[in-house]
Write a structure and sequence with these properties.
binds magnesium ion; 14 helices; six-stranded antiparallel sheet; binds 2-acetamido-2-deoxy-1-O-phosphono-alpha-D-glucopyranose; alpha+beta; 360 residues; globular; single chain
């Protein structure tokens, strides 16, 4: 089925369409921008149903969250609007078994794969902080756990060890030192999970994919809201804070090949933390706050581990540009993690200082 035919299955004015072209840098779905002569443009997505095996559940989560947000914050809800299919569903299943959905494209909005200025980092922190605040009382039981144990360190380490055993042999042999690196960090990375199991930190409704390119900015570089609600599920605050720092306060892109260019940028970290904590400090408990400085290490490790696991599995999960892409991502993230470890004391001080100022 051609893309235009897919569009015609949704409640949009198909004759007005000028073009449908690949768009964005997501690693999971196929995304297209639909440009029209009419009032608005759209984003068309072919949903990756190998990864999301229950699309009705996925879409129901997103609809529930959007409807909830609508009652609290109309601007954010507008920016997340989906178009129903002709039959009134938020997705369309084509004859090949592929699932599609359409969002309204927010006029003049943009995203950044990485931020360069403190102002953008601050805005990003504010947007994800607001999202947390908005969903603070959202009824968790309404959400399906579409990707169970998504950021669970135990689970990710188990999958990794099984790929070490069963993955592509030459690849496993090639990364012996990297396997040791992962194992050397395993105990430390289970800390947040333990605190959760001991009920010292609560499960919240978290976004779970707080890459900075999931914040929508307006033409004046002010954050409009956060997008990509695919992974909204119960989680710990550290998951959202940590993953955002991984891309929103790093000096290079996720897959940078020149490792000297990859490190944690403390100014961006400070600005993001300020924006995030201004929104959330009042809702967080003491243990949650005390562990924030460590969250970027955890999430950088978890995502790095997933890249390395996918490399061993033969690149079956993330989209890749070449055979080395997942390995390249691993090395860049590993370097970022080392830089965070070296700056652990400073990152701790940054958070403490901001919290002190906000709560005095
Ligand atoms: C994927 O497609 P994208 O870029 O929004 C992934 C995230 C990873 C990210 C790494 C459902 O997100 O968990 O952090 O790539 N999403 C899923 O860049 O696995
Ligand atoms: Mg995304």
């Amino acid at each position: 089925m051609i893309l235009l035919d897919i569009c015609s299955k949704f409640k949009i004015d198909t004759p007005q369409i000028i073009s449908v072209k690949p768009y964005g840098s997501g690693h999971i779905h196929d995304t297209f921008k639909v440009i029209t002569r009419g009032k608005c443009d759209y984003l068309l997505q072919k949903i990756n149903s190998k990864i999301f095996s229950n699309i009705p559940a996925l879409q129901s989560n997103i609809e529930n969250v959007i409807n909830y947000i609508k009652a609290e914050d109309q601007d954010s809800a507008n920016a997340l609007e989906m178009i129903n299919s002709i039959s009134g569903k938020s997705f369309f299943l084509d004859e090949n078994g592929d699932y599609w959905r359409i969002f309204v494209f927010v006029h003049k909005s943009k995203t950044y794969d990485r931020v360069i200025t403190s102002d953008l980092a601050y805005e990003g922190g504010k947007a994800f902080g607001e999202f947390q605040k908005l969903l603070q009382k959202f009824p968790v039981e309404k959400l399906y756990e579409t990707l169970p144990k998504f950021h669970n360190a135990d689970y990710r380490l188990e999958l990794f060890e099984s790929s070490v055993k069963r993955g592509i042999r030459e690849r496993v042999d090639r990364v012996k030192e990297e396997i040791e690196f992962v194992r050397s960090r395993a105990i430390k990375m289970k800390r947040i999970l333990k605190l959760g199991q001991q009920n010292k930190i609560p499960l919240r409704v978290t976004h779970n994919d707080t890459k900075i390119n999931n914040v929508l900015f307006d033409e004046n570089d002010k954050a409009i809201c956060v997008i990509d609600l695919d992974t909204v599920m119960p989680g710990y605050i550290h998951y959202d804070f940590g993953d955002a720092i991984r891309t929103g306060a790093s000096s290079a892109e996720e897959d940078e090949t020149d490792l000297d260019k990859m490190f944690i940028d403390l100014n961006l970290f400070k600005a993001y933390s300020q924006g995030f904590l201004e929104q959330t400090v009042e809702m967080l408990n003491e243990t949650e706050i005390n562990e924030l400085y460590f969250a970027p290490q955890l999430l950088t490790f978890i995502i790095a581990l997933r890249f390395l696991t996918d490399y061993l599995d033969g690149d079956v999960y993330f989209k890749t540009n070449n055979e080395e892409h997942n390995l390249q991502r691993w090395f860049a993230q590993r370097k970022l993690l080392l830089s965070m470890e070296n700056n652990e004391g400073k990152m701790k001080q940054v958070v403490e200082h901001i919290v002190k100022k906000l709560t005095k």
